[in-house]
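Work Package 4 report. The design task specified in the project plan requires that, given a folded chain encoded as structure tokens, an amino acid be chosen for each position. We show below one input record used in the internal validation round.
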């Protein structure tokens, strides 16, 4: 999701004594401008994922298989501390995705045509097997019940080919 960061300058530059030049005035005006950084993409922490048939919501008494691979993710900058219930389901950008993220991993979120999508995982720990760093999208410590590894075995011997 796109977000902006505003930086304001707190200190004024000192002007030299004597007649103020045009360059000094430009420096003064430029130093007083607030700068704004625009980010089109945002990192998000995965807090839930739909992988099994029993996890899928029902539509007309049948599971909605179009949501396989959908995640709930908390945007690191613009949704800090948002509860899991308030987060929307986000679909993968690529319909042929083969590697789904784990809870606690980070993905890149973007918005196209009014819908949120996630793309690849962020390389947080330089491991092709395990990049879980839970809690960066919250200002407080992660409660024990909020994060749990389900049937996942970390293997430090796995390397990239």
């Amino acid at each position: 999701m796109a977000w902006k960061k505003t930086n304001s300058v707190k200190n004024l530059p000192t002007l030299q004594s004597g007649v103020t030049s045009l360059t000094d005035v430009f420096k003064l005006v430029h130093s007083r401008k607030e700068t704004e950084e625009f980010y089109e993409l945002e990192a998000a922490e995965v807090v839930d994922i739909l992988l099994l048939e029993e996890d899928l919501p029902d539509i007309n008494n049948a599971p909605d298989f179009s949501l396989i691979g959908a995640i709930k993710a908390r945007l690191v900058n613009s949704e800090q501390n948002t509860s899991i219930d308030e987060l929307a389901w986000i679909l993968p950008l690529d319909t042929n995705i083969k590697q789904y993220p784990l809870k606690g991993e980070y993905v890149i979120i973007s918005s196209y045509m009014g819908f949120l999508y996630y793309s690849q995982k962020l390389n947080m720990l330089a491991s092709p097997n395990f990049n879980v760093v839970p809690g960066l999208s919250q200002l407080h410590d992660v409660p024990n019940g909020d994060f749990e590894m389900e049937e996942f075995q970390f293997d430090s011997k796995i390397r990239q080919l």
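The beta strands are 3-7, 35-39, 42-49, 58-59, 62-63, 71-75, 89-92, 106-112, 115-121. Validation will be extended to a larger panel in the next phase.
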